[in-house]
Known about the structure:
Blueprint: H1 3-6, E1 10-13, E2 20-21, E3 24-25, H2 29-38, E4 42-47, H3 54-63, E5 73-75, H4 76-87, E6 92-96, H5 99-107, E7 111-112, E8 119-122, H6 130-141, E9 145-148, E10 154-157, E11 160-163, H7 165-176, E12 181-182, H8 188-197, E13 205-209, H9 212-221, E14 225-229, E15 248-250, H10 253-260
Parallel strand pairs: 1-4, 1-13, 4-5, 6-7, 6-8, 8-9, 9-12, 13-14, 14-15
Antiparallel strand pairs: 2-3, 10-11
Helix pairs in contact: 2-10, 4-5, 6-7
Amino acid sequence: xxxxxxxxxxxxxxxxxxxxxxxxxxxxxxxxxxxxxxxxxxxxxxxxxxxxxxxxxxxxxxxxxxxxxxxxxxxxxxxxxxxxxxxxxxxxxxxxxxxxxxxxxxxxxxxxxxxxxxxxxxxxxxxxxxxxxxxxxxxxxxxxxxxxxxxxxxxxxxxxxxxxxxxxxxxxxxxxxxxxxxxxxxxxxxxxxxxxxxxxxxxxxxxxxxxxxxxxxxxxxxxxxxxxxxxxxxxxxxxxxxxxxxxxxxxxxxxxxxxxx
Length: 261
């Protein structure tokens, strides 16, 4: 049953709900990463969150007892910067977000501009204010194109559910009549960029995620085999509600590690 899975040489994995919940490492996560390292397999952790830089994500895993180098992380902020630099090299943006988004944009030569930017870019942030919302609306009405790092309406934290990019950008869409273009999962752009970063082909790659509506559909649309783990958002009884199915369904990374052994 798992022979085809064992032939994969590149692994793309979601983080929250797969590797950890908040500040708690999930069963099998450390063993899974150890197996990837020992077999010298290519891997990338993919997250729709745009808040943290790869270095900050590496530091978080280190605090949980797992060592992973920053180059093994790819965020929706990095994907957004990749997208904008390909669409309009040297463009300028008015960005609402945290360090992960600002750093990603700067690294691609994208400048900040709150007067006449090419794009208004919204990501997760804890500094959301009416003043910044008002400015974003004015700039979009003035011709700036509206970009969201991801379409997620909510995100999990140690203190419970909080509004995510999709919710933060909704008032701008409603006020301007403009629909945002979202870069993160399930947009296959992010998945294809991740496969390219691994220097892999789709048939060599597998994506592991806990959400049918982001991780699994992104894999399906990018023609990458999928593993749905039931350690996060999607429950087993919910799978038949979707028009697409994952290649494999497992309880979590512990079962996947056992299957690869």
